[in-house]
Write a structure and sequence with these properties.
Length: 91
């Protein structure tokens, strides 16, 4: 592998990583599993399996990254989760 190609690959990876933010969903004692799952499907475009796994992780671990992407896309999604009574933040 040439040095130029290796450097370009490293730059490509760094560019991809710098544009990534995450929505982290936190556990609470208020919302049901069904509400969390339905919200993740509606707002974060999860499959039912993804949403169920995230809900379980939030329940047992206290938090879970539910969506990764550009800040502008995540901002409205996070606001929608908060509107539904869930605890979430962008990091």
């Amino acid at each position: 592998m040439s040095t130029k190609r290796k450097i370009q690959e490293e730059v490509d990876v760094l560019e991809q990583e710098t544009n990534k933010f995450e929505i982290v969903l936190f556990n609470d004692d208020v919302n049901t599993f069904d509400h969390v799952i339905d919200s993740l499907i509606d707002i974060c475009d999860h499959t039912s399996e993804q949403a169920e796994q995230c809900a379980l992780l939030v329940h047992y671990k206290g938090k879970c990254t539910v969506k990764t992407g550009e800040y502008n896309d995540l901002k409205s999604r996070c606001s929608s989760l908060l509107t539904k009574g869930l605890s979430a933040e962008i990091v």
